[in-house]
Design brief:
mainly alpha, 52% helix, disordered N terminus
Length: 388
């Protein structure tokens, strides 16, 4: 038996040990809960210039302006509720909160326009064919493209990081879907080419031999890697949980959009890293970092679990490997339990508890966060469409 086959067998055994008899997820129940929470969320949030984000340390609601990188997730979540229910009240609310982000189409100071624009406008356009949404996104895609330096071959994430002028974070993989859509919608190959070059250089420079990802890679003016660091992980060499989820989701998406099997291979290997990690708890909801120093006395990250579940369900549609489906199902089962989902009216009306934004910065630690809700709803929708 080859080394590759041995690794595959061991991976399957390790995962199957933790997967009980299939835990079917009651999507209808979860969506009923989501509707109740977001009904209350809409009543509590009437200022369209402030977007629900999280809960502050003092227990009050945290809202952010549209230029905050998470501003698109609330509108995107409302579109998912409309997609599931077909109730026009969710469409009306989604339209309002989507248009509230419109001005960010001119924002060239962030790499996160995929989150900010494509999550609300992309879902809105997919569900309504509103040409206005398309026009807004194409302006936004051009703004995002300005952050690509062809000499370096990557989209710049931040303006500076610890003395380095060209930092690129693994999260950036999530914004490529926006550019790939823009290429198809406009016929402009530039956006497609930027996405391919960025994904290839990230694949080359961001991953370790075990397919875990660094958070931040810092580049010089000629594209040379100068440093590999972390900003939100436990250490430069650790595997920050949400970063692994971004990577899994990003390369699964890249395979969908290009058909290039190297991206599928990468996604499969990242999934193996996550699923077979010895520090993964029995309920599969990861600690905020797979190498956090005080495991098992570390916070879990429901947001990383939700992103991972959404990615795995799409990955399953390509691999037909039931391991991917069962792992996603286990994640959704745990997220839908009382441990991670509250009661209607609790949790400042967010869906999921126990996410971690940035433990090193003591920011959004063990709290609800809006993007956890968004990817949880996306995962529930994807799960509902798969028949086993």
């Amino acid at each position: 038996m080859t080394k590759k086959n041995i690794i595959t067998v061991v991976y399957g055994i390790l995962l199957s040990i933790g997967l009980h008899a299939q835990h079917k997820v009651d999507v209808g129940k979860a969506m009923t809960y989501a509707q109740g929470q977001y009904d209350l969320m809409l009543r509590a949030n009437t200022d369209l210039s402030r977007f629900p984000q999280s809960v502050k340390k003092d227990g009050t609601l945290d809202t952010r302006p549209s230029e905050w990188w998470c501003s698109g997730f609330f509108g995107g979540s409302l579109w998912y509720l409309y997609e599931f229910t077909k109730d026009p009240k969710w469409k009306d609310a989604a339209e309002k909160w989507t248009m509230a982000v419109e001005k960010e189409k001119y924002n060239t100071t962030t790499h996160d326009l995929g989150f900010m624009l494509y999550c609300p406008f992309g879902n809105g356009y997919r569900l309504t064919n509103n040409e206005k949404y398309k026009d807004i996104m194409l302006v936004g895609a051009e703004s995002l493209a300005t952050r690509f330096n062809p000499k370096i071959g990557l989209i710049k994430s931040w303006e500076e990081f610890k003395g380095f002028d060209y930092p690129v974070i693994i999260d950036n993989m999530m914004n490529l879907e926006f550019l790939l859509w823009a290429s198809k919608a406009s016929g402009n190959k530039k956006y497609h080419n930027i996405s391919i070059i960025h994904a290839d250089n990230t694949l080359k420079n961001h991953f370790r031999k075990d397919y875990s990802s660094y958070h931040v890679v810092c580049y010089g003016p000629n594209g040379k890697v100068l440093a590999r660091k972390t900003n939100q992980g436990a250490a430069d060499a650790s595997a920050w949980a949400r970063g692994q989820a971004w990577a899994l989701y990003g390369y699964t998406m890249m395979f969908r959009e290009t058909g290039n099997r190297k991206y599928l291979k990468q996604a499969v290997q990242i999934a193996k890293f996550i699923a077979s990690h010895p520090n993964l708890p029995s309920d599969k909801i990861p600690y905020w970092d797979f190498n956090a120093p005080d495991i098992p006395n570390e916070e879990r990250d429901a947001s990383a679990a939700a992103i991972t579940a959404a990615a795995l369900l799409e990955l399953y549609t390509y691999t037909k490997d039931k391991i991917h489906y069962l792992f996603a199902e286990e994640l959704l089962h745990s997220l839908s339990s009382d441990q991670y989902s509250g009661k209607t009216g609790d949790n400042h009306n967010f869906l999921l508890k126990h996410s971690v934004g940035s433990k090193p910065y003591h920011s959004e630690v063990d709290t609800p966060i809006i993007y956890a809700d968004y990817y949880y709803l996306e995962a529930l929708l994807r799960y509902s469409r798969i028949k086993i």
